[in-house]
Write a structure and sequence with these properties.
The chain contains 15 helices and 23 strands. By secondary structure, the protein is of the alpha+beta class. A hairpin with a 2-residue loop joins strand 4 and strand 5. The structure holds uridine-diphosphate-N-acetylglucosamine. Uridine-diphosphate-N-acetylglucosamine binds near residues 26, 121, 122, 125 and 163.
Length: about 425
């Protein structure tokens, strides 16, 4: 086990390169299983979740090679269609392998996925959509046996909620379905566009990715390609919040302005200045931040649930009262008791509304990461706090943030990783 030890209070300053997006890399890696060829994926972040995806690819018979941030997947001899529970439980996005395997082999056996405990996270939308495509889904002793051995048939699927994972699974399954599949109320996240870009470059026919209606026309097969994963907009928001919480001034290299459009107004409201020049984004923070009256998480292009904890860590020392409402996941305030240990004044109402009365300053404490983004939030809070903070269970952070201590050290923070 490891922990982060942070001596806070230093305004962050300098330039940092943004890692590739975890939430893009994982579905793209799953999608390589649907390709009868070699996929070369650049800008793949070095994360434990990426290692878990590689393990699944190897388990089903792919040859995988890592060269720095490039992952090369040779799926020509892949033949496995069963993913064991131990591998499924490692992360939520293991469920996206279901669509890739169905598309390639017409069958898949998986178990419900694991991942951060931020809510119930059912997969009913995934399964009902697959059934609409003609997949038979049977639960047998906790294993989901999915079969479409006579092929899938394109259809119209209207999602009750624009689920990111369900949209990805439908796109993947529909690749080999007969005719056209139309998804309405599809998720519009940039990561959906990245997945569709990868697949189209392999020969898929997908239009409308990034919009509410996505059309997929089935094709005979996919061939290998080379693809570069988009930058991680959530990690960008982590660096930005850390700059804001410490009164710093940093440049994030590799940021995509459009992807950050749901969060930039929040930073401007608290008094930060942001400026883009090409793919470099500069952010400078005032001495004291101002509250955000009301912030509510929404599907893209709304404010992202993944940035909620991280932004809250910045708001706890903003002047005035901020109200943050989390409506995407039921259990995404696990960082709140930890922030309170550091001196934050937060009251949770109805389980999903956090009322934050800004305090002058946080102080260091021993805290625990309960999930990935909540853990990043504690690091942000610690960087702005007076004194020393120790964060344990940082394996959560390592699932999505590449060597967080190195990134923040590069920006002048006093932060180190220690064995417990
Ligand atoms: C993805 C992201 C995650 C992000 C989330 C929302 C990856 C690997 N993870 O997760 O970081 O926080 O999008 O932006 O990309 N739901 C159902 N039934 C379903 C599917 C989802 O009720 O079949 C509910 C979930 O419980 C949740 C909400 O829909 O309350 C959003 O989930 P979804 O968009 O599917 O998130 P994920 O794909 O799991």
């Amino acid at each position: 086990m490891e922990k982060l030890v942070i001596d806070g209070g230093i305004p962050l300053c300098g330039k940092i390169d943004l890692q590739g997006s975890k939430n893009s890399a994982l579905p793209v890696l799953a999608a390589t299983a649907a390709v009868d060829g070699i996929s070369v994926i650049h800008n793949c972040p070095d994360l434990s979740d990426v290692a878990a995806a590689v393990k699944i690819l190897e388990h089903i018979g792919c040859k995988v090679k890592r060269e720095g941030h490039t992952v090369i997947v040779d799926a020509r001899n892949a033949c496995g269609f069963e993913i064991p529970e131990t591998q499924m439980r490692e992360m939520r996005s293991s469920i996206v392998f279901l669509g890739a395997l169905l598309s390639r082999f017409g069958k898949a056996s998986v178990t419900p996925p694991g991942g951060c405990e931020i809510g119930l996270r059912p997969i009913d939308l995934h399964l009902s959509s697959l059934r609409s495509l003609g997949v038979s889904v049977c639960e047998n002793g906790g294993i989901l046996e999915c079969r479409a051995e006579n092929g899938m048939k394109g259809c119209h699927i209207s999602l009750a909620f624009p689920s990111v994972g369900a949209t990805e699974n439908i796109i993947l399954s529909a690749l080999s379905a007969q005719g056209e599949t139309v998804i309405t109320n599809a998720a519009r996240e940039p990561e959906i566009i990245d997945l569709a870009d990868f697949l189209c470059s392999c020969g898929a026919k997908i239009s409308g990715a990034g919009q509410s209606t996505v059309r997929i026309s089935g094709v005979k097969g996919l061939t290998g390609t080379e693809h570069r994963i988009i930058p991680d907009r959530i990690v960008a928001s982590t660096f930005m919040a850390a700059a804001a919480a410490t009164g710093g001034k940093i440049t994030v290299n590799g940021a995509v302005r459009e992807h950050l459009s749901p969060i930039i107004p929040v930073f401007e409201t608290v008094g930060c200045r942001t400026e883009f020049s090409g793919n470099e984004m500069r952010i400078s923070a005032p001495r004291k931040l101002t509250r955000v009256k009301s912030l509510r998480t929404m599907p893209y292009p709304g404010f992202p649930t993944d940035s909620q904890a991280i932004i809250m860590a910045m708001l706890v020392t903003a002047k005035g009262t901020s109200v943050v409402t989390e409506k995407i996941f039921e259990n995404r305030f696990r960082h709140v008791p930890e922030l309170i240990k550091m001196g934050a004044d937060i009251r949770v109402e109805d389980g999903c509304v956090a009322v934050i009365d800004g305090v002058e300053r946080l102080h260091g404490a021993k805290v625990s990461a309960g999930d990935l983004r909540g853990g990043c939030a504690l690091a942000v809070a610690a960087l702005g706090a007076a004194g020393r903070t120790e964060i344990d269970r940082i394996y959560h952070i390592d699932r999505g943030c590449e060597a967080i201590e190195k990134s923040f050290s590069q920006l002048g923070a006093r932060i180190k990783r220690e064995r417990i």
